[in-house]
Amino acid sequence: MASRINLDRILKILEATSSLEGIQDVIEKVRDLFEIDHIVYHWVDSAGDQYGCGTYSDEWVQRYLEQEYLRTDPVITGCYQRFHPVDWKRLDWSSKPARVFLADALKHGVGNQGYSIPIRGPNGQFALFSISHNCDDLVWEKFTEKHSRDLILLAHYFNRKALDFEPDRAPEQSRTLSPREVDVMTLLAMGYSRAQVAETLSISEHTLRVYIESARFKLGALNTTHAIARAMSRGLIVV
């Protein structure tokens, strides 16, 4: 599975990408790195224009468009209402259109497992970074537990790179984290629990919460995991 060295190399390649077409090449490398069946990134900018890249077959992409599955796909409808990553099993597949869509997706090799990360940009952009694979529930659960942090980081890197190519986009303002905020976010990114972070830095958990909330505000993050991803993608912390 993915190693930190290879992941860092992929992030550097993505950072150096100079076109939307180049993102497609990188996403194929990421799929191979994680040894999964498919990865898809779909971005809608503030003007409503769309861009997508991924590893689904051309046949499935065409089928998806022809059947207008965008209207009934539980991954799209479910993630648009969420801010946090979600396993596809937790989405609502009970309706007849959803079941028809699922059967068709399985027939076209999408995979019986999936995990999606919704991302919202500063000016109304919405993006979705999804991975899918064919395996049993236990294997998938272990995989997502092991790689969720890296996947969230990758999702935000892909989104930031796609936003670089959005016409007339204003530069994103960045605020510097304090040294103690950097310490807190770094330890959290390394997998420390809040209690362990507080103990390591010799501060109370109340003080720790203050640092976390301050970092989240500066980074414009929706939650702590989002803040870690943003801090890492901007080079504010290194793990």
TrEMBL record:
Keywords, sorted A to Z: DNA-binding, Transcription, Transcription regulation
A GO molecular-function annotation: DNA binding
Keyword Transport applies: no
CDD domains in alphabetical order: LuxR_C_like
Domain HTH luxR-type per the UniProt entry, residue ranges: 170-235
PROSITE patterns documented for this protein: HTH_LUXR_2
SUPFAM superfamilies: C-terminal effector domain of the bipartite response regulators, Pheromone-binding domain of LuxR-like quorum-sensing transcription factors
Coiled coil residues, start to end: none
Biological process according to GO: regulation of DNA-templated transcription
Keyword Transmembrane: no
Alphabetical list of PANTHER family matching this protein: DNA-BINDING TRANSCRIPTIONAL ACTIVATOR DEVR_DOSR
Protein name as catalogued: LuxR family transcriptional regulator
